[in-house]
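1st attempt posting a full record on here, be nice pls
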Amino acid sequence: MLSFSACIDEDNLERDKGSVPLAMTVNSKEIVLDNNTPVSDALRFEWTSGTNQGTDAGIEYTFEMDLEEGNFDEGVKLALGRNERILVYKHEALNQLLLDEFSVSPNDEVILKARVIADVLDESVDKQISEVVSFSVKTYTPVTKNLYLIGGAAPNGWSADEATKMNTVSGSVGGFTWNGRLNKGELKFITTLGQFTPSYNKGIDDTKLYYRESDEDEYDEKFTIEEAGNYEIKLNVLTGVISIRKTTGPEYDELWIVGSSTGESGWEFEPMNVDADNPYIFSYNARLSGEFKIATEPDFDDNIPYYRPTTQGVGAGVNLDVVKLSGQENADDYKWSVDDANYKIKLDIQDLKIDILEFIAYPMIYLVGEATPNGWSIDDASPMEITENEFIFTWSGYLKEGEFKFTCDKQSDWNGDWFTATADKTEPTGVIQSMVYTTGGSGKDYKWNIAESGDYTIELDQFNETVIIKKK
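the predicted structure (as tokens):
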């Protein structure tokens, strides 16, 4: 028995589409695009399948859209492939398409036309083209995707290249927010790094924005920040509403000490340390001699505030009064003055008090706690070994699982001087870690925690308040 087989192109095979003519519809003849609904459907096209003339051949579709006066040579041309018979444009996508591809101006109305072409994958069937549908679309001015702070009050000043970026608000079209420190001065907002316009300026009052499109617009009002500090800014460029609110918290998160003996050659800005528990407290430990003051920015500009004594030449002491004045406000340039010695300085910018204490090294430091050889017996606390540097002590030995801290004086009522951890149950890292120096039993009783018993080495620097606890 003889048998014959035919070669069939499965890729182009499709059932009979019948004889339905190709036709396209649009959801509306007049469309107004809305900035508030960027991802909602704005324009929806649907079309019938067209016919493959009973050939069982597949049909591929091409969508075309052009301006009313165009002939589809330019404009949009989308090869959609097979089985695609719906095309949807979202508000934002269509608005951007019209502005970019068709050069339509924002807030203008334009007449468009569209059609669909059905190409049957069988050479015996002619291409089908739907009737043209026409419709109008009104565009809008797009909302900027980026916004930056600029001005004398902004962190990076008037540099358009380094303006401070704000954060977008999820789910709020045109919403931006920012938290941080502002200086005393003026402020506005730009949309593009390196360009001063377009910008959003102060409107009719401090709660309203004004959109300044170009330098040709002479209105250039700025928001004014009357007092430096931490601020929260919330705004919406779409509604034109803004809120600038001073928040609680320290005015500065960085300070610098500068004086006749700071740095290698004097009058170099040295950063202070922020207290781990209280962000209002800054400390600095160093050998000092002569004058010094404390800067809010590492700059000698007369406009920059400095923390100073209330009169010239105040020396070392505890709970000393502090004022914050710029060079313009304090022509006499008040500074503290100290004799040559090692000092621990602690400045409280909330209460405006400063401790300037000459630090004399403790002759011995001891370990006490359940992890140490003699447990919590302070009388039997384990002594460390002094090195050639009077401030640095070392210890080597076996530590059990558990907590411990360092006593400076083995005071039996436990109200003596201590070096403690910066957080409770701090585990050693084997590298330099900060300590907290407390006197008279004050401060939080944070301890180190040994999670794994074994032989350890410890190096403690009582002046710089650092420690290395390393397992062998």
